[in-house]
Structures are given as structure tokens and as C-alpha cells.
């Protein structure tokens, strides 16, 4: 898959947002690929993981987050859903699902309801915002180490875990399971 052509289509101008997206996505992709290299026994699809990691945040342009040069109309928590909608036709369901499922350490249906999150729930997907496949989990896990506000720094495992605490114990527990599997 030519993920660069897709990025070029949605982010044609060389500006702060594109540079931020490219730096963050490359960092996430490199960490995810390092996991693939460390764990050949997992049988991960390396090419898919690279493309998915490079495209996982494509939807940020649709969101209102001026601190990272995003001036769209959606709340930031919807950036994964926006990316999934953008990429479904271009890349197919599998990469769209990575976009939709990478926020936090996944967001459960119960999280959406209990926290009143502005994320749609439909009856056809039991957990539409939870990473299921190992590839989805690897991209989600790698993403937790890189902030879009501090681009030149990788978080430690402890820092990444602390940043998830604001989303609840379930996400922290999933992150710890992934750390045991991927580190």
C-alpha cells in the first residue's frame, strides 16, 4: 500500500500540521516495527503495521485541537473515527479499524456510556473502539509512547502508563498486558 500517496492526498500542503503528523506517525511506525522485529513468533504483518501506523492519525485534520494545528469541527476524541471514515474506501476495512480503535488503550462501550463520550455506538459492533487483532494492538501500544505536543521525545513505559490513568483502570490494565507481550 502506498500510504505516502494517501497522506499526500489528505495533507497536500507542507505546513505545521503535516510535519507534526509525519513525525508522530513515523515515530509510532518505527516503534511498532521494532516490536515486529523483536517478536517474530507473533507472526505480525510488518507491511500492514507500517502502513497502519503511518495512517492511524490521518483524521486529526477533522478535529478541533488548535494546540496541534487542527482546526476542524469534531472533538479530538473522534480523530480515530474520522480517520476510519476517510480511509475505509482508500485502504479497506482493516486499516480503517486501526484508526478507529487506537485511541487510549482502546475505549470500551461502557467507557463511552459512563463518560458520555461523543462517540457513536451501533448495534452491529460490540466494541467498536477496542483493538482486537495483534496488529491493531501493536499500533495502539506504540502510539502511547509519542505525544503530538512533545514531538522529539519518547515516553518511558511508566510515563505512557501514567498518561493512560486519566482514562481509567481498564486501559492501564490493557496497556500493561501489551507491555508484557511486546517488550
Ordered list of secondary-structure elements with their pairings:
Blueprint: H1 3-10, H2 16-38, H3 46-55, E1 64-65, E2 70-71, H4 79-91, H5 93-101, H6 109-115, H7 134-143, H8 157-164, H9 169-182
Helix pairs in contact: 1-3, 2-3, 2-7, 3-5, 3-7, 4-5, 8-9
Which key features would you list for this structure?
single chain, 183 residues, mainly alpha, two-stranded antiparallel ribbon, 9 helices, 2 strands, 2% strand
What does this structure look like?
The protein has about 180 residues and is mainly α. About 55% of the residues lie in helices and about 0% in strands. The protein has 9 helices and 2 strands; from the N terminus they run αααββαααααα. It has a two-stranded antiparallel ribbon. Strand 1 and strand 2 form a beta hairpin. The protein is globular, with a radius of gyration of 15 Å. It starts with a helix and ends with a helix.
- Report the strand count: 2
pLDDT below 50 for ≥5 consecutive residues: which ranges?
A: none
Gross morphology is globular
Percent of residues in helices comes to 55-70%
Largest sheet properties: 2 strands, antiparallel
Element order, helices and strands?
Answer: HHHEEHHHHHH
Put simply, the count of helices is 9
Identify the strand order in the major beta sheet: 1-2
- Measured between the Cα atoms of the first and last residue, the distance is 27 Å
pLDDT averaged residue by residue: 95
> Which structural category fits the helices and strands?
mainly alpha
The amount of beta strand, in percent, is under 5%
- Radius of gyration from the alpha-carbon trace, in angstroms: 15 Å
Amino acid at each position: 500500500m502506498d500510504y505516502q500517496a494517501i497522506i499526500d492526498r489528505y495533507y497536500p500542503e507542507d505546513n505545521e500540521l503535516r510535519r507534526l503528523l509525519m513525525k508522530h506517525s513515523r515515530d509510532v511506525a518505527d516503534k511498532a516495527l521494532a516490536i515486529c522485529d523483536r517478536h517474530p513468533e507473533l507472526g505480525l504483518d510488518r507491511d500492514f503495521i507500517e502502513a497502519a501506523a503511518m495512517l492511524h492519525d490521518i483524521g486529526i485534520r477533522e478535529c478541533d485541537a488548535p494546540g496541534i494545528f487542527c482546526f476542524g469541527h469534531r472533538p479530538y476524541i473522534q480523530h480515530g473515527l474520522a480517520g476510519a471514515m476517510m480511509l475505509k474506501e482508500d485502504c479497506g476495512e482493516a486499516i480503517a479499524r486501526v484508526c478507529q480503535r487506537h485511541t487510549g488503550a482502546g475505549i470500551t462501550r461502557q467507557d463511552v456510556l459512563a463518560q458520555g463520550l461523543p462517540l457513536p455506538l451501533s448495534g452491529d459492533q460490540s466494541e467498536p473502539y477496542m483493538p482486537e487483532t495483534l496488529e491493531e494492538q501493536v499500533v495502539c501500544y506504540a502510539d502511547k509512547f509519542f505525544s503530538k505536543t512533545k514531538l522529539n521525545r519518547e515516553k518511558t513505559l511508566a510515563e505512557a502508563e501514567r498518561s493512560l490513568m486519566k482514562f481509567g483502570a481498564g486501559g492501564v490494565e490493557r496497556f500493561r498486558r501489551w507491555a508484557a507481550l511486546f517488550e
